[in-house]
From TrEMBL, chain A:
The keyword Repeat does not apply. Coiled coil: none annotated. It is an enzyme of class 7 (translocase). NCBIfam families: 3a0106s01. It catalyses: a quaternary ammonium(out) + ATP + H2O = a quaternary ammonium(in) + ADP + phosphate + H(+). The keyword Repeat does not apply. Keywords: ATP-binding, Nucleotide-binding, Sulfate transport, Translocase, Transport. Gene3D superfamilies: P-loop containing nucleotide triphosphate hydrolases. The lineage of its organism: Bacteria, Bacillati, Bacillota, Bacilli, Bacillales. This is Carnitine transport ATP-binding protein OpuCA. Residues 3-233 form the ABC transporter domain. GO terms for molecular function: ABC-type quaternary ammonium compound transporting activity; ABC-type sulfate transporter activity; ATP binding; ATP hydrolysis activity.
From TrEMBL, chain B:
The keyword DNA damage does not apply. Belongs to the binding-protein-dependent transport system permease family. PANTHER family: L-CYSTINE TRANSPORT SYSTEM PERMEASE PROTEIN TCYL (PTHR30614:SF0), MEMBRANE COMPONENT OF AMINO ACID ABC TRANSPORTER (PTHR30614). The chain crosses the membrane at residues 15-41, 53-74, 80-99, 140-164, 184-206. Residues 15-203 form the ABC transmembrane type-1 domain. It is found in: Cell membrane. It is a multi-pass membrane protein. GO terms for molecular function: L-cystine transmembrane transporter activity. This is ABC transporter permease.
Amino acid sequence: MHVEVRHLDKHFGDFHAVKDVSFEIEKGKLIGLLGPSGGGKTSILRMLAGLEQPDQGDILFHGERVNRLSPQDRGIGFVFQSYALFRHMTVFDNIAFGLKIKKLAKAQIRERVMELVELTGLKGFEKRLPHQLSGGQRQRVAFARALAPSPQLLLLDEPFAAIDAKIRQELRSWLRELIDEVGITSIFVTHDQEEAIEVADEIMIINQGKLEQKGTPWDLYKEPNTPFVASFIGQSTLVEHAAALKGFEEESGGGSTQALIRPEYIEIGPESEFALLSATAGGVVKHLHFRGSEWLVEVEVGGQSLTTFRSLEKENLEVGQEIRVLVHRAYLFNEERSWIAENPLKRDPFSVII
Amino acid sequence: MNLVWDNLPFLFKGAYYTLLVTIVSMFFGLIIGLVVAIARLKGNRLIRGIARVYVSIIRGTPLLVQIFIVYYGLVDYGLTLGPLTAAYVALSVNVGAYLSETFRGAIQSIPKGQTEAAYATGMTGWQTMRRIILPQAARVAIAPMGNTFIGMLKETALVSAITVTELLRSAQLLVAQYYVNMPFYIGIAIMYWVMSTVFSAILNAAEKRLSKVY
């Protein structure tokens, strides 16, 4: 299903939950709605489902306006954060319910339910009641129930929020495979960036009711449109005065410009590791955290604290050690604009083109 | 106590009418209660208002007064009901008001997500109420409904005031015949207690069985 949203707006009393949100979703894509809690993600999802009415704006499925359509007429499947399984029904009956409502033949219902039971790995659990299942199993039943009537759009509200970390990891991969197999347009809400990056084809970053940016995880990481996106996707350190960074004195154009610096933008080490010392600044190692495959290093440079990674292959550093720090690039922003700037000092003035 | 033994068949007949009035009134009370509960939750402002006033009046006035209004009061408007019919009407209307509050609470206790999940699965409002909400609400309501039923069993004694020969009225007739009070009143007290205990046990078993579902 092709989904389009135009100028969606929603208030809850005085609270402006969704502010003029517009986007398009191509058929068959898996989209992550990512943002902090209370940002309006679930409100958008519920409006798409028809469980909430927008104050303004249009929702279009296949170019048809569906604002006035009830949830049962929208052809959607919804997976709730709390699963919302029908507690008085078995796994089989939960999955079959949407099909019974459509008055399908018993044989057809059975065939479809067993197909979904197989697909979701619930074989052998058909006669169990929800309270007899684990969190992960309940979640799978919720997926199966949502998929049973063959909806054109699958909506998932924080589908892994109530599940412990290990099973959550397994379910993520499973969901990605399942949706690829079924080929259904899907939108899921999450506040976990790792989850969104791992599962989604595209991510929409929602903050304080606004759509900050939409794009692939890599696009958002590489070219964030706003400081919020830059800080929300991936790790980064905020530097209040970009001019304090070696090489960015001119680029930042004054005191009001701030910088976000990702760990991979920074290179650290003893003097011997740098060919171009003039581009580096002196720093001190404040903390070292062993991360299994690398070191996470916190460095203090000119009163600023920066975080970066260091390979295990390189010479070990020690807390308190004086080192050199090279900031390759920074995400700069002020009131007027935001941009990614390369460190101009990196250009070797004596380089010769042969 | 021999007098009680000798007149046991007569007292059993009274007990039969007690049970009959209780069961019939409870049956119609359940229907009234359910309709009123849904009216209070889903109706428009007028319907909600009517339902609220009905519950308020019934809960705010004594049952005996309600029985007299139905049996004696309606005669003024040309509607004469037999004692048993009047008992059914008065008790059904009374218990319906109490049960409506039980059902309303039970329906409201079902998480909103259940309704939304039903809508998302393709159900209409009425299908959702009938197939998702009410079956779950019934489990919540079973205990208070049981209490209402046992309360009703004892309150049927009030219909003796309009000459329905239920258990209390049977005892009163025997007292008038033999001029002894205590044996007959103790006898019917034991019979009320036995009936209450038996129904309590049945309801507890039903409640246990249903609560296993979650």
